[in-house]
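Obj.: predict assembly geometry.
Materials: sequence records (below).
Method: joint structure prediction, all chains together.
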Amino acid sequence: MSEFKQKMLSAACLAMMSVAGGAQAQSSVTLYGILDLSVGSFENAHLEGVDARLTQVESGKMTTSFFGFRGVEDLGNGLKALFTLESFMRMDTGAQGRNNSDVFWARNANVGLAGDFGKVVLGRMDNFLYQQALMFNPFGGSFGFSPTIRLTYGAFGPDKGDSGWSNSIAYYMPNLSGFSFAGQVQLGESETEDDSAGLMAGYTSGPFAIGLGYQTVRSAELPKPNLASGKQSFTLLGTSYDLGMVKLFGQMGQYQGKGLAAAVDNTKTKIYQLGAAVPVGTSGKVLASYGRQTKELVGGDVKHTILTLGYDHNLSKRTDVYTVYMRDDDNRANFEAGNTIAFGIRHRF
Amino acid sequence: MFAKKNVVAVAALLALAAGAAQAQVKVYGYVDLSVGSFEAAGGESTTQVSSGNMMTSFIGFSGSEDLGGGLKAEFTLETFIAPDSGQFLANNASAGGFWGRGSNIALSGGFGKVALGQYDTPLFISGLSYNPFGSSMFFSPTMRHYYGLGTGVGATGRALTTDTGWVNSVTYETPVFGGFSAMAQWSPSESSTDGEADSFTVSAAYNAGPLSLMAVYADHGVTDANAAYLGEQQVFALNGSYDFGAAKLFLQYTGVDNGDRDLEDSAMYQIGASVPVSEAGKFLVSYGQLKLDDSDLKNKIFSIGYDHALSKRSGVYAAFTSERATDLSTANTFAVGVRHSF
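Observations (raw structure tokens):
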């Protein structure tokens, strides 16, 4: 597992690090982040005749920009204590968070213990739907370009629970011969909010990987508005196969709302995605992904499809530049497709 | 299979080799606190412990990476702080964003430098470089006339409709050729509403020995997508400085054309000098005037100060500023302060 270790040059920070715990405790604090900026002409599917095209300088299209602190403490006997604090930001304007109602440490704010028993983490962390969604599509966790992510979260996605959960406990079993299992809860912590829960299972063997995620959202934490009633369930199956000259991805999922305040949220929504990543030379990669979301509404199925093609080029192990074309389409009458083209740079520290 | 989420995400997105990439993150900043009697034109004087009067306090994180072939990648994240109250300071430039001093990624090489995100704008760079009080938002007449802290003149309270940095921008800086260099910056309005306009600015500079010159042209747009671009206007600025050794002389002229908007055109000029009196100490003096074209309203600011460097990074200062705005009572401010860079 790659670790990106950074040493802060500030004397004040070095002093801070050595003060933690007692003289015997070995600890290291890492300051890190991923920053992503792009410029492009963006257009989603829109009503005919409406001007929906925007030229923008944007942050976080491939990877949502963030910075963070994390550390590990060796407790002896194979036991480790871990902490992670991560904050999103909008690099284009310098604003904190993904949006103006975001909490400061929205990406991660947790403490964990890891050992032979596996790993247990408490606090705010990614939920299993998000982890599964990003693992089996070539654009990963890209909220700007990944069909899977865009059809699950955001303006077109049914999700009401956000990609991370607060007041959460997650337990990861140790990896056994390629099999993995994990469970997670988000506590509602009040009489009006019920708990949410998730399960994840996976298997990896050589070039082949498969994963299944299931979660039920009954409450929501900041920045999402709380669910006044009802629940939302997600099941997502994903698989990938690395043939060397190409890596193939496939996903199939279903989202179902029940008893939610808005009737349209109680429909069944199906999603599937097919994608590929083709290495080019030693530093480049062609990425392609096609995703379709079908909402089974009373008046007829509404299909939203997104096709994204991209080229990602590594200038180094930490810096890459990318170019993406995305076509966003909605099958309803009076809607026409939108085309997006963007060029971006991503830097990891 | 359940590797840490961020590692899996990275593996899905980038072709990573197994080796770790070492990054050095620089943590740096500036803290400035002063105590004194502060007064704005037409207002009352108050005694305050105030922060950031010589330069706004801030903390920043940056890093650079050598990509080979002369190419370099850099990132910058800077946030203003108000150590007098412990708050972070919002900034008009980023419409109140947390990283209000800068948030950008840049690629540089033989071709110059290209930066994306939130980056200083040429008018701010020329404004601070050609007056003895630099970017002091309280003592520098230029900074106060440009960015309007208490000028009491004009409906917006400041001459310029954009701030010290431009959000949502693409910036290009040329390399230096025989003393010449140029800069261009563009920010799209990011909106399809009628009447919104992109912003664009260019500048050219010449440096040779004791002489330094810089000219800036800016076409400020307007957008409702954020609060950083307030109104259309065109600005032209001419700046010069000459270092005689015994003193450095500064001259600035700025003209603002507000077009059809309901705001008067204006002209500003500044003349100033910094006079070293010892290895560590120097006197700073600056006089600036802003005049509205139609109503003939004027705002005149005179500042004199003494800065004493205790080391390369720390210093103490004392400064006096007098502001006279037409039809308003004169405002006098005196403060002594400490500044420290880390």
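Conclusions so far: Chain B has a mean pLDDT of 86.
To do: check interface contacts against the pulldown list.
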